[in-house]
Design goal:
- The complex is a heterodimer of chains A (597) and B (159).
- With 597 residues, chain A is α/β, with parallel strands linked by helices.
- Chain A has 5 domains: 101 residues, Glutaredoxin (3-Layer(aba) Sandwich); 195 residues, NADH-ubiquinone oxidoreductase 51kDa subunit (Rossmann fold, 3-Layer(aba) Sandwich), CATH 3.40.50.11540; 84 residues, Roll (Ubiquitin-like (UB roll)), CATH 3.10.20; 83 residues, Up-down Bundle (de novo design (two linked rop proteins)); 56 residues, 2-Layer Sandwich (Alpha-Beta Plaits), CATH 3.30.70.
- Chain A contains 24 helices and 20 strands.
- Chain A has a 5-stranded mixed sheet.
- Chain A is globular and about 95 Å long.
- With 159 residues, chain B is α+β, with helices and mostly antiparallel strands.
- Chain B folds into 2 domains: 60 residues, Arc Repressor Mutant, subunit A; 79 residues, 3-Layer(aba) Sandwich (Glutaredoxin).
- Chain B has a 4-stranded mixed sheet with strand order 2-1-3-4, with helices on one face.
- The chains are: A alpha/beta (597), B alpha+beta (159).
- Chains A and B meet through helix 1, strand 12, strand 16 and helix 17 of A and helix 2, helix 4 and helix 5 of B.
């Protein structure tokens, strides 16, 4: 890094960019010029630090000061105080919600203490648009080592021994997958990177691609060498324009450096990568559907076998891995399988990236060792529940997963424990819910998603999920009977057993897991027509407190459906049959006489 | 659906797009992305041209267009408004924001206001979950939107 004394790292991931981080970067660059600090201070763009809730984030190196919620107007103060006067700008430091202390050094923050960053090792450290910075952090060394020192078999052995499992959701052992693809003889093979992150509320892959695109390219080349493929394809969502742009820049630079293309590093190994775009279909996360989509077809899954490793893209053997899986490969090659397998639990090695979102204080991107407990994630890293509310559930695995509750808070998180708890690892979305969230409503929300995203090929998924959704709707509207609950459970099991692909086989999970953990809420909706979270609008009741009502008739005159009756100067009454729950009466009442039950 | 006459010039542009992908049917999705970028939406007439150029059936093109949520056969408003209904936004009240947009604009999801100014759609996660709930107007992202803030957003584009 030369003679430069200070580096100002500005996050330009999607979340921070939305909050004007590009303007912040521009301001820093201009100020550095104006004040003649070019030889000492450098402002650079980096990928996601993970602390998205408090963005835009600016990090000062080498002292690790972490400024949060920075505005473009703050730049000159940071330069004047921090760099010229050597004093931290206190008002921009992160304040711990528990201790109320402002924290100057990011490494001491609860948010960072429990994290181990492997897949995200470069996010927030390097400029993703500059290949030299990636190389300076051991980038492309793993590829060099593999090509010059190791055979494909030996490389696969390292991956196998490391215990790395697919991070896209299924958890299939990565090394084994590579070995199977290698074993098939064919004139042409493909390796594919699945960057079609469709789980709503998850943004792990996007952050890796935006913050460290080269790691994916390097790992894909290693994969190509191991499996015998000379062509890589990245299948990415069209909704991620920034990630696409960074990938394109990275690919261009890698080609210029001879790290992609013909005769890589003079070893005779040829490998190049192209990008194909998704167009918004959740089911395309499934391997076979993804491959059909890459071929320009509707993204409908097909029965396995044949597996893509035998017959995939254009009928050729194809190895599909997800972004995060790839991001783990270079460090494993460089540091060895023993280093990697020392992290994590017996059957789940290494780390997992989670996108922490929902009712939690520190929304953001985290990477934690397998085996960490939900309690540590939510309370230590996540900083607890927003507004001091009570934790109710955390959904992992998105629409395919289930709800973890209070009793799971101390269960070590790994592939197998999550399945045992009725959820799954999934790609890494973790949505935290508090007592204001209705669990029946959540199940309905996920089913609505599945109904919309079902490709329609097989009837259990196409029709069954629709019926599940309708039943849930009935429950939340207060029209359900006890029998509906049994139907819900039975139908869920049928859909799981008979659907063609992973989407249908897992889509009833939110229903089953919410029924297992919150059956009392279902019963309340059905028998008492009550939603304890107050989310289900149809079950809400606007009521008038007779003692407070002076009979001014204001509410009755404002009711759009004439549901309020009562004589002047006498307590009024709301006809629940007519009431549409618009809330107009409550808004107008000057005597706090109307409340929601 | 009303018949739309595509101008010769636009058709030529579209043919060039197909050609830039070697008229390869496996590139259909990429072609559709470009075409939608060019025209704003994908009316039936346009799909017929693409089908001819790539030498595939119109049914094939239509099947793909209707399968993927990113493609639309209806023109969007001058200012397309998209409300994120990803899980993170949902638990932070995106549904109420959507209701408010519907109420104020007097249109449903997928519709455009009679003056052609605003259209309303939902999307799943732009990945800015730290700012939930999120609303997009065109390319501009609005974070932490409350139902009360909806009128202000619309007012920004109303003149």
């Amino acid at each position: 890094m030369g003679k430069i004394k200070y580096h100002i790292l500005v996050c330009v991931g999607t979340a921070c960019q939305t909050a004007k981080s590009e303007e912040i970067l521009k301001n820093f660059k201009e100020l550095i010029k104006v004040k003649g600090l070019e030889t000492e201070v450098q402002a650079i763009q980096t990928g996601c630090f993970g602390f998205c809730e408090n963005g835009p984030i600016v990090k000062m190196m080498p002292d690790n000061t972490f400024y949060t919620k920075v505005t473009p107007e703050d730049c000159s103060e940071i330069i004047d105080e921090h760099i010229i006067n050597g004093k931290k700008v206190d008002r921009l430091l992160y304040v711990s919600p528990e201790t109320k202390e402002s924290i100057g050094d990011s490494r001491h923050k609860g948010f960072h203490k429990k994290q181990i960053r492997i897949a995200l090792r470069n996010c927030g450290f390097i400029n993703p648009e500059n290949i030299d910075e990636y190389i300076a952090r051991y980038g492309y060394q793993a590829l060099g080592k593999v090509l010059t020192e190791l055979t494909p078999e030996a490389t696969i052995e390292i991956i196998k021994k490391s215990g790395l499992r697919g991070r896209g959701g299924g958890g299939f052992p990565t090394g084994l997958k590579w070995e199977i693809t290698r074993a098939v003889t064919s004139d042409k093979k493909y390796v594919v990177c699945n960057a079609d992150e469709g789980d709503p509320g998850a943004f792990m892959d996007r952050s890796v691609l935006e913050g460290d695109p080269h790691t994916v390219l390097e790992a894909m080349a290693i994969n190509g060498y191991c499996t015998g493929a000379d062509q890589g394809v990245i299948y990415i969502r069209a909704e991620y324009p920034l990630a696409v742009e960074r990938l394109k820049i990275a690919m261009k630079q890698a080609r210029e450096y001879g790290l992609l293309g013909k005769d890589i590093l003079g070893t005779g190994f040829n490998f190049d990568i192209e990008i194909r775009y998704g167009a918004g279909a959740f089911v395309c996360g499934e391997e076979t559907a993804l491959i059909h989509s890459m071929e320009g077809l509707r993204g409908e899954p097909t029965v396995k076998p044949p597996f893509p490793s035998e017959s995939g893209f254009f009928g050729k053997p194809t190895n599909v891995n997800n972004v995060e899986t790839y991001a783990n490969i270079p460090p494993i090659i460089m540091k060895g399988s023993d280093w990697f397998s020392a992290i994590g639990t017996e059957k789940s090695k290494g780390t997992k990236v989670f996108a922490l979102a929902g009712k939690i204080n520190n929304v953001g991107l985290i990477e934690v060792p397998m085996g960490i407990t939900l309690r540590e994630v939510i309370y230590e890293i996540g900083g607890g529940i927003r507004n001091g509310r009570k934790f109710k559930a955390a959904q992992t695995g998105g629409p395919s997963g289930g709800m973890l509750t209070e009793k799971h808070l101390d269960t070590p998180i790994d592939y197998d424990n999550l399945i045992a708890a009725g959820s799954m690892m999934g790609s890494g979305g973790m949505i935290v819910m508090d007592e204001d969230d209705c669990m029946v409503g959540m199940a309905k929300f996920y089913l609505e998603f599945t109904v919309e995203e079902s490709c329609g090929k097989c009837s259990p998924c196409r029709i069954g999920n629709k019926r599940l959704f309708e039943t849930l709707e009935k429950i939340t509207q207060g029209h359900a009977i006890a029998e509906d609950l049994d139907k819900l459970r039975n139908l869920s099991n049928v859909i799981k057993d008979t659907s063609l692909c992973g989407l249908g086989q897992t889509s009833p999970n939110p229903v089953l897991s919410s029924m297992d953990n919150f059956y009392h809420e279902y019963l309340e909706h059905v028998h008492n027509k009550k939603c304890r979270a107050g989310n289900c609008k149809s079950l809400m009741q606007y009521l008038i407190i007779a003692e407070n009502c002076i009979g001014c008739t204001l509410c009755a005159r404002n009711c759009p459906v004439d549901a309020i009756a009562g004589e002047r100067k006498q307590a009024h009454l709301i006809d629940q049959e007519k009431c549409i729950k618009c809330g107009a009466c409550m808004e107008k009442c000057k005597f706090n006489a109307i409340f929601i039950n | 659906m009303a018949k739309i006459k595509l101008s010769e010039k636009k058709i030529e542009e579209l043919k060039d797009v197909c050609k830039s992908f070697n008229n390869d049917k496996a590139e259909l999705i990429n072609v559709l992305h470009k075409a939608q970028g060019l025209f704003g939406y994908l009316p039936a007439e346009l799909q017929e041209v693409i089908a001819r150029e790539l030498n595939i059936s119109v049914a094939h093109v239509y099947g793909v267009v209707t399968f993927y949520s990113f493609f639309t056969m209806l023109p969007k408003g001058e200012y397309p408004i998209s409300i994120c209904l990803g899980t993170a936004c949902y638990v932070r009240g995106a549904e109420k924001v959507l209701e408010e947009f519907k109420r104020v604009l007097k249109i449903q999801v997928g519709e455009t206001t009679p003056d052609g100014k605003f259209s309303l759609s939902c999307l799943r996660c732009v990945g800015a979950c730290g700012l939930a709930p999120v609303v997009l107007v065109g390319e501009k992202v609005y974070g932490r939107v409350s139902p009360e803030g909806v009128k202000d957003i619309i007012a920004e584009y109303s003149n």
